[in-house]
């Protein structure tokens, strides 16, 4: 979730002054949502199933992108683009400050599931990376010309999720098999369906975003405050996006712990409530755009162990023209994409980012 590009240019672009570091367990969130949907569908009646099924929005990637896509190199490997959207449309408009007419992708992460379903890898793409946006169709089906030096997180607002997928494919040479998008309102709904989440922080949070102020220690947050918490940037730590990512990971692990503590996965009533909230937040590709599609996909991912997940920041360097922006660093990024494209272990040299504090 981001502010508008104007706000970014006036200061929000000052990011990544801290060195990128490995971050594990991110896949827990995606797997958790899928598990909730699957288990929530089991044991419910036809009406409940149809209701949940109808919640899910989907996009036909092949139709939206066309035939100009990378070839699949390893048949049984899977690549999933996970997008966090800050759309202010509809119910989302009441949840945060900003331009209610726009939306951007605050979080973009390409998750690679290898053949054999062993150790997965997630590559986070910094939102202020300057990229070449490919020719795309916008949300109304009109063709947009290719453009250089575009903010990565602006692609979603200008042309929608299919163009984000096409952009990532162009950057990486990797065929994206699926995408999953989660929005503001759905995130809040999931937390409120749990009755809140307990979070512990070791430093005070100043309330720089949305007025949320927390002392160091343990707090119980409802959906609205949880949204403010995970969007906090300047009010905690060094004020960088890496600090915010750390808060988001801390919160997601706390939410997973809350689900386990409540035995939510063992309660049909609570499961349905969570599944209803979860499906309302989702937009996926057409293959995953149903409970059956999600269920079949999750079943195929049984061998993935979230505890062995490796998270890598796409190697970037500060832009020579504008130090508030970053560009893809080579040869590291090329080595990273090549390893994932061919389902091989990512070499250590491909994880080093020149954009360090």
Could you explain how this protein is built, in words?
The chain is α/β, with parallel strands linked by helices and 357 residues long. It has one domain: Nucleotidyltransferase, domain 5 (2-Layer Sandwich). The chain contains twelve helices and 15 strands. The strands form four sheets. A seven-stranded mixed β-sheet has the order 1-12-9-2-3-4-13. A four-stranded mixed β-sheet has the order 8-5-15-14. Strand 6 and strand 7 form a beta hairpin. It is globular, with a radius of gyration of 19 Å. The N terminus is likely disordered.
Question: Which shape, going by the Cα principal axes?
Answer: globular
What portion of the residues fall into strands of 2 or more residues?
Answer: 15-25%
User: Uncertain runs with pLDDT below 50, 5 residues or more?
Assistant: 1-29, 31-44, 88-102
How is the main sheet built?
A: 7 strands, mixed
Mean pLDDT: 75
Radius of gyration: 19 Å
CATH architecture: 2-Layer Sandwich
Helix-strand makeup class: alpha/beta
Give the strand order of the largest sheet, numbering strands 1, 2, ... along the chain: 1-12-9-2-3-4-13
CATH class: Alpha Beta
- Measured as a percent range, the helix fraction is 25-40%
How is the secondary structure organized here?
Blueprint: H1 5-12, H2 27-41, H3 46-55, E1 57-59, H4 61-65, E2 78-85, E3 105-113, E4 121-124, E5 129-133, E6 136-137, E7 143-144, E8 147-151, H5 154-159, H6 161-172, E9 178-182, H7 184-194, E10 197-201, E11 217-221, H8 223-231, H9 241-261, H10 268-280, E12 282-285, H11 291-300, E13 310-313, E14 316-318, E15 326-328, H12 332-341
Parallel strand pairs: 1-12, 2-9, 4-13, 5-15
Antiparallel strand pairs: 2-3, 3-4, 5-8, 6-7, 9-12, 10-11, 14-15
Helix pairs in contact: 2-10, 2-11, 3-10, 7-8, 7-10, 8-9
């Amino acid at each position: 979730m981001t502010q508008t590009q104007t706000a970014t240019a006036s200061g929000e672009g000052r990011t990544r002054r801290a060195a990128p570091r490995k971050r594990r367990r991110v896949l827990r969130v995606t797997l958790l949502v899928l598990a909730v949907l699957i288990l929530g569908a089991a044991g419910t009646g036809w009406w409940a199933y149809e209701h949940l099924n109808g919640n899910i929005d989907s996009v036909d990637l092949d139709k939206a992108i066309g035939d100009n896509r990378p070839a699949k190199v390893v048949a049984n490997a899977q690549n999933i683009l996970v997008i966090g959207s800050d759309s202010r449309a509809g119910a989302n408009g009441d949840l945060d400050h900003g331009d209610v007419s726009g939306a951007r992708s605050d979080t973009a992460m390409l998750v690679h599931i290898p053949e054999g379903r062993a150790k997965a890898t997630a590559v986070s793409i910094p939102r202020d990376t300057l990229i070449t946006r490919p020719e795309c169709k916008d949300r109304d089906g009109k063709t947009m010309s290719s453009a250089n030096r575009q903010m990565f997180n602006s692609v979603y607002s200008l042309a929608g999720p299919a163009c984000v997928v096409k952009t990532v494919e162009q950057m990486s040479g990797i065929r994206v098999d699926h995408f999953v998008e989660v929005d503001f309102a759905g995130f809040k709904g999931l937390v409120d369906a749990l009755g809140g989440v307990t979070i512990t922080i070791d430093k005070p949070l100043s309330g720089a975003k949305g007025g949320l102020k927390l002392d160091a220690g343990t707090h119980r947050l409802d959906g609205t405050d949880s949204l403010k918490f995970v969007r906090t940037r300047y009010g905690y730590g060094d004020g960088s996006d890496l600090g915010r990512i750390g808060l988001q990971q801390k919160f997601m692990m706390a939410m997973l712990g809350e689900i386990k503590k409540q035995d939510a996965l063992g309660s049909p009533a609570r499961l349905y409530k969570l599944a209803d909230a979860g499906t309302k937040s989702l937009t996926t590709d057409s293959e995953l755009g149903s409970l059956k599609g999600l269920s079949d996909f999750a079943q195929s991912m049984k061998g993935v162990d979230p505890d062995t997940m490796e998270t890598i920041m796409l190697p970037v360097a500060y832009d020579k023209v504008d130090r508030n922006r970053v560009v893809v660093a080579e040869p590291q990024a090329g080595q990273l994409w090549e390893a994932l494209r061919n389902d091989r272990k990512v070499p250590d040299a491909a994880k080093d980012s020149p954009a360090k504090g």
